Amino acid sequence: METIFTTDRVRPLLKKVRHFVQTELIPLEKGFSHHQLDELIPLLEQKRQQVKAAGLWGLHLPKEEGRSGPLGHGLTLCEFGQISEELAHAPFFGHYVFGCQAPDIGNSELLHQFASPDIKERYLTPLLEGDIRSCFSMTEPEFAGSNPTRMATSAVRDGNDYVINGRKWFTSSADGAAFAIVMVVTNPEADQHRRASMIVVPTDTPGFSIERNIPVFGDVGQGWFSHAEVTYTNCRVPVSNLIGEEGMGFRLAQERLGPGRIHHCMRWIGNAEKALDLLCKRAATREIDDNIMLGEKQFIQDFIAESRADIDASRLYVLNTAHMIDKVGAANVREAVSAIKFFVANSFLRVLDRAIQVHGALGITDDTVLSAMYRHERGARIWDGADEVHKQNLASSILKKYGLDVKKKARELQEFRRMMAAEQL
Amino acid sequence: METIFTTDRVRPLLKKVRHFVQTELIPLEKGFSHHQLDELIPLLEQKRQQVKAAGLWGLHLPKEEGRSGPLGHGLTLCEFGQISEELAHAPFFGHYVFGCQAPDIGNSELLHQFASPDIKERYLTPLLEGDIRSCFSMTEPEFAGSNPTRMATSAVRDGNDYVINGRKWFTSSADGAAFAIVMVVTNPEADQHRRASMIVVPTDTPGFSIERNIPVFGDVGQGWFSHAEVTYTNCRVPVSNLIGEEGMGFRLAQERLGPGRIHHCMRWIGNAEKALDLLCKRAATREIDDNIMLGEKQFIQDFIAESRADIDASRLYVLNTAHMIDKVGAANVREAVSAIKFFVANSFLRVLDRAIQVHGALGITDDTVLSAMYRHERGARIWDGADEVHKQNLASSILKKYGLDVKKKARELQEFRRMMAAEQL
Amino acid sequence: METIFTTDRVRPLLKKVRHFVQTELIPLEKGFSHHQLDELIPLLEQKRQQVKAAGLWGLHLPKEEGRSGPLGHGLTLCEFGQISEELAHAPFFGHYVFGCQAPDIGNSELLHQFASPDIKERYLTPLLEGDIRSCFSMTEPEFAGSNPTRMATSAVRDGNDYVINGRKWFTSSADGAAFAIVMVVTNPEADQHRRASMIVVPTDTPGFSIERNIPVFGDVGQGWFSHAEVTYTNCRVPVSNLIGEEGMGFRLAQERLGPGRIHHCMRWIGNAEKALDLLCKRAATREIDDNIMLGEKQFIQDFIAESRADIDASRLYVLNTAHMIDKVGAANVREAVSAIKFFVANSFLRVLDRAIQVHGALGITDDTVLSAMYRHERGARIWDGADEVHKQNLASSILKKYGLDVKKKARELQEFRRMMAAEQL
Amino acid sequence: METIFTTDRVRPLLKKVRHFVQTELIPLEKGFSHHQLDELIPLLEQKRQQVKAAGLWGLHLPKEEGRSGPLGHGLTLCEFGQISEELAHAPFFGHYVFGCQAPDIGNSELLHQFASPDIKERYLTPLLEGDIRSCFSMTEPEFAGSNPTRMATSAVRDGNDYVINGRKWFTSSADGAAFAIVMVVTNPEADQHRRASMIVVPTDTPGFSIERNIPVFGDVGQGWFSHAEVTYTNCRVPVSNLIGEEGMGFRLAQERLGPGRIHHCMRWIGNAEKALDLLCKRAATREIDDNIMLGEKQFIQDFIAESRADIDASRLYVLNTAHMIDKVGAANVREAVSAIKFFVANSFLRVLDRAIQVHGALGITDDTVLSAMYRHERGARIWDGADEVHKQNLASSILKKYGLDVKKKARELQEFRRMMAAEQL
């Protein structure tokens, strides 16, 4: 879909990426299961080389990066979003092969902006080259992920080191990563939003332990396709591994969020396009009675029309938000950044569900990629803030302009409850 | 909401229009009912003069138009769409006072492009000035409006005249109009899409009769706020009243549709914004228990967040479609033109329903404009092609690219049924 | 639909009622508008005499009632619910002609149980006979109807009289009523649930004034088809007009609610059946192309199937709830009494909306009863507790069994806010 | 939930079953994955013995069955449905441990009614005792399961044998089964509904081959928890293995369907109750901020209330349908049998999705049973007729009463297309 956001710069790149994805990556999908990632890795590394050779590696990067010459194309977030959609037509390999897979893309953006030259040298450079992988360690099982100001993992300063203790889960891609960026409480007495910090922890640090890859919808995954439960036990790293300053953790998490939101949403849109494409192929070729094709049925036409509109509206919503981030910064379009999260995640999951339904029994098997897409992405409505949290935030922000400060009233209540709880002790 | 579509040319106009609507028009809404339009007309005419004086009349017009000097601003469809949204904050008067109300706006676009100089002189010029009103007479009670190739009203040529006979309904604004553009069968033997023509019929022509203003949701309306049932009985007009050529009726209807769709959709978006504004005001000020406001409730927050996303996604979808029409013509973005119709109509009606619900008993009364908006716009999912028709068309167009020609198969069936029916006679 | 709830006693009654409704009442619907109720009243009174003659008057009444002989049939609530559904096939006249229209039915149940013999003699007896009408005056414009413990209308004792002052609205059917049952604060210092009382106020009492019939969706209505805004200005009635005891108002409101809920829900189910019937008739007879009927389209089939399931599930849910009320009392099935309210109101409004959509432009006109049904019943999701209130109550009741007392926590918050507000003074 | 359907006979059984499920089965769920069924089997066999000892084995059976004494309780379908719901609180083991798991329950009902004494002796008796398992082989990958009159697998008579060739899939529980009941075309020239037959095929018959257990949502399963793709290659069985008569296949499939539908629906209702129970536990115990529990949030309350109503309405709908089957036979309540399928499957999947959402990241892991329930039951809207097929059938049946025979018109079209296709050859 050509939109107003399709610039002359990005148009030829989109075409090349689309071609590569169609011819080199989609054929690899057949029969792929997450358990077999190891077997596929050599082939994917080879594809990465092709991508680099074609000058398509790291399309999210600014122009000047790169050890052995210029890497990026200096695309805007809005332009890269369109690339990201194309990559998502190969949901399991696309971003990896082009060197812009989560969580590495977010981590590299973070390090690029806030890490010391030394940290950049040791971690960012090989990360950008695809020589190593990384993970991001924030959510804890005992605390609602929706409230990133609450966590138990702590880093206590001891000489020139931080000593880290705690338990994290959904530390995605920890399996095989070279380092983690971990969110920890460093300043427990500070104001709620100034307590946490982010620290780089190499995964070979003693005390860093992957307890398990968490089975998600029956799948423990492997390598970058996995979500680990990780413990930090007296895990000691130099103070210089801190990103930015102490207490900046929450702010860094917010910074990571704006572009991250666009990446997520555009991936879902690409996934949704793929699902709709499979739906239409099925509808056009499945005979349900002599000479009567599935696609002649209005039930199916309804699915197609609703999906087309869901996806196209979603794309424009996300790209306009990316465009505004490019123009005025994420902090100034926070409402849209919240809104696209739940709007697009729900649109996508509806499209995917329709595609499964149209495939009938085939749709729930692993003979198509649809069921794996579902297992892999049902979390879209949960990760990175559940729908309900984003809706509450969005509505609160809107109501504030009408003179009702919902959050302030909620804080008073919370204060009151803390008081009550304290009295009961 | 500032979007990528907000050009420097339209930005100051939007500001002026918004101000006028807020200060001059919205105050007129209080206690307005459709039955009292007559009483209000003198006041509205006065507002029209103010609009003209401010150079804001006929913002949809190209620059060169106008009897007494330049009228228009040469806005693109996409730019005017944004104006239209602003006008819709005064749902009952906005477009009228600014001289761009339906069906006159569509009729003037049609006459401008296809009418003879004489017709333009006699009908278009006073129409653009707001000296007269017009109506558009297409739908017939006995035929599904979704299929504009089927109709019974005919024009038979007799010398230099057409003699028109038939019954139309939902001829909106016929009450008080100076002329109708009527769609009639002139060439019954031609191919299905070449049978009809459009003819200008002055409403004082003998045989033109308004049978009634049709009560819609309990409201018969008045003047341009009404939908008439009209009969044509041996209604005789000169052949020169034909618009374009014989057999062009269906094509003209299609031409009228592209921009018309944008006008409808942007009006709904403006209406939806107004409904959401009322919703938020209520949520922020209605106390439901001591010091507890309605807006603190998550049920209401859900309504607000969903509405915000529904509206913003809809706006971008419509404006991008308008932008593409401006750029490549409506014929090349037919899928989007279908999709926005049902997508936006449904988004709007959901927002409106939530606003009614949040107002409680007040919401169903006429003490706010919400219930009148509902009565006036429930038809959004019906007029101009029901949701179901647009979805079927959109899906058929998509499936054709996958090799399944749904419409061709349906035509075969239809042919077969006609054959069967003929045999039974 | 014959269900397990269709007893041998009710089956023949259902058949008679259905026949009467079909042959005597539905023909009156044609062209009826709420404004013309007056013209229709003589005819309806005549139908009432026929109903009485057929022994079908007041089917909700216990057997022993009636001035001039036995009136009722001693039906259970569950059995009467099925009658009520049949009556609702004539949405505007059914219950009235059979003497069981709201709010009289609820008022008579209340007086029957709680009023003094004298009040019964003066008000209940003629009410049961249909000689007079009554109204119920509870909701106030300034207070959320969802919270019946908050109201400003007061009754102050002065000798043997109460002196009543305040403003009520949605006092349905006040226009033409002989008396109101009004809910007033008599004991402002008592516990929240013991402040209010219910008092009978004859409408000819000085100080009782109908300010207006409130326009609802454009319709001010008339007679028992209207919702009044009423003021009470030093309105003086004898203390003996109190129903039950002082402070019982809230409890009486609750008592009124259980059976009232069943009445509402079964009326909606009957209305929904009527809407579905009209939908199916249209689908089976509307030709949309040569020899192709609307009902051949799966979009329409989807509407029909969803509606059939929505209605049938709703009916069983309500009748089982009525059966449980008959067996163990409303207080013991409070969750179901909450749940059916929002479940059935939403099912019904969905069915009705589908019926409107299938009728196309005709559906929004007053040429069918559908649009009037909508205007008359959109309030279903609002009256008698909005959806959101019932959902909150239901969930709170469920969560209490899991050890979380949501309401207690909310009360603490409220207490805290009152405290805070007091401090600010 | 005690309903009108809870008879005195079934009430004590429900209590016993509930107790057994809670104390003996639910503890086994912890950490269970489908891959490990083998390890669990010995334990489950032991539980089966306990069930038999408690006289609770085969509660679906008529009283007289059983090799070593009376097995069943002679429950009605409606009564057993309530048992089935209780068993479904242990979604993976309940029905198996109590000897009434699909597809064995359906197969035994079929054999009981239609098989020869010899077949009964050899297959039904050990099946009822739980000594062997069976499978049902009907769906083929190349044909839409929604249309059971179309299939390619054939049985050709050769002397006293049938020689069977073809490919089936979703032959559930074939892995480890002793025999299959296979649906084959025996009479290709007969009328569409008289072509197929059902034949018993022991799985050790040469030519019977399980090609694979089909991975469903990433899970290949094992044993009775699996769905096989099966080929029949010159598979030879004696003619006496025919169930009923030649050409009865379609009718037998229909017979199997009525009770099967109730079994499915009640299992989903039990599953839904389990999901809602987990949802409520989570809501009541998950702290999202200091002293603020998840269940205090209205978003969650909305989920709970909607789920409660969805489940309770579904249960009554299914039990009333079962009651009517008991009373007048499935053939006379075909509309309800269609309607409950899509109504309940959708209600259930909505409840399940809400439960996953409320659990946040935990909800998509295998640390609760929710994600496994989803993977195992997403097919609910597909198996046994997709939603769309049931809706079409239901609507067609309704429209027939209004004089529109949709199916007849569709048959004409089909005939026409066959004709057209033949001409093209």
Automatic annotation (TrEMBL), chains A, B, C, D:
GO biological-process terms attached to the record: fatty acid beta-oxidation using acyl-CoA dehydrogenase
Organism superkingdom: Bacteria
Acyl-CoA oxidase/dehydrogenase middle domain segment(s): 135-219
All residue ranges annotated as the Acyl-CoA dehydrogenase/oxidase C-terminal domain in the record: 247-398
Cofactor(s) listed: FAD
Record domain Acyl-CoA dehydrogenase/oxidase N-terminal: where: 11-131
Assembly information from the UniProt record: Homodimer.
Homology family: Belongs to the acyl-CoA dehydrogenase family.
Name this polypeptide is given: Acyl-CoA dehydrogenase
Organism per entry: Spirosoma terrae
